[in-house]
Every structure is written in structure tokens, then in C-alpha cells.
Amino acid sequence: DSGVTQTPKHLITATGQRVTLRCSPRSGDLSVYWYQQSLDQGLQFLIQYYNGEERAKGNILERFSAQQFPDLHSELNLSSLELGDSALYFCASSGGGGPDEQFFGPGTRLTVL
Amino acid sequence: QKEVEQDPGPLSVPEGAIVSLNCTYSNSAFQYFMWYRQYSRKGPELLMYTYSSGNKEDGRFTAQVDKSSKYISLFIRDSQPSDSATYLCAMTTSSASKIIFGSGTRLSIRP
Q1: How many angstroms separate the Cα of B87 from the Cα of each of A52, A63, B3, B14, B69?
Q2: For chain A, does the N or the C end have fewer beta carbons within 10 angstroms?
């Protein structure tokens, strides 16, 4: 158990809908990272937040957004969902804002029908 | 060309064998190198974290980094069926927090 929690474990929704994925980092970690993992794309970095501020952006679509709250938990919002958004979404946390070791949560499996 | 290249496998070896997993990369600015293990439908688990060139050993696992060749390796000694998983290499620069992952190698250890 990495200490990173993610909810929900599974999410099934329809195209065009909006969903919110939640992540709680390990105790004491200030950074939260979001990743998307699909069969054909591997593990893709989406976005990082450090102590409430956006720190780095990866291949995140404009339909997706994230935020980190004062208690350091983070939410990833996915809107106008498409079939291709079906994937595993992982959250990871680390202590600082730099190249620290990242610890991954168990993931949320999103299925868009 | 991808920044990080990793042979997807699958790689199948008998129990007890030494396993060698490898990645190559193109960005000479990468300084931090990691290996993650991912069981099916689970989150990646950090195995090894190294800085710059050299070797690092942890139990049955040894990570090697050769920056001159832009090549990193993970060796698993006395492999066990429980080592069957996908192994992901990952790396980043000293200034960036974004980690670039390889596509992963599927490893199967036959009893």
C-alpha cells in the first residue's frame, strides 16, 4: 500500500458526460501528479500540482482540468467525455516539487460507453 | 522518435533465471532514473531510484545507468513467479518534475 488513495475505483459513464476523480496524497506529500494509462499510449503524464499551485503540465486535453485543495487532496475533472477517454487514471504523490520519488495510487478505471 | 524506448516484450524466463530489462533514451539532460513494477490492474510500484550513472543494488534487484550510452538496465536475480509483472523505466531531468515513462516490458516467470 503506497498511502495514496483514489476514488472511485471504477466509473462507467456515457459520451458527453462529465466526471470527477479524486486523489488523496500520502501524508506529508505536497505534490500530486495525474497520469492516464491506456493500452496503446502507455503511461502519460497529465498535470502536477505542488502545494495548491499548478507546477507542470503534460499531455492534458483542454476538456480536462485539475485542482489541488488546501488539504492537499486533488481532483481531476474530465468533461465532454469521448470513447477514447476510457483508460486507467492514476494519481501519484511526492514530498517536494522536483524530481522526487513518486508513489502511485491504485487508479480509477474509467469506461466511456 | 520517443524520448524513452523500452522493448515491450513479452519476456518469458524460467524461475531462478537472471532477468535483464533495458531502456534507451535520447535526452542527455536526464539525471534521475527509476524502475517501477506494475501488476495487472494495479498502480505502478517504485522499485529503484537512482541518480546519474552507476549501479544500485537492493536485494535481488540491481539498477545500472550508463549515461554515456544513454542506456539503463534492471537486473533481477533468482527470479520468482511473483516477479511476473510489467516493468516500467522512467526518467527525468534535475529541473523538471515531469517524469517520462517507457512503454513497459511484460515479464513472465515460469515455475
Answers
A1: 31, 31, 17, 17, 21
A2: N
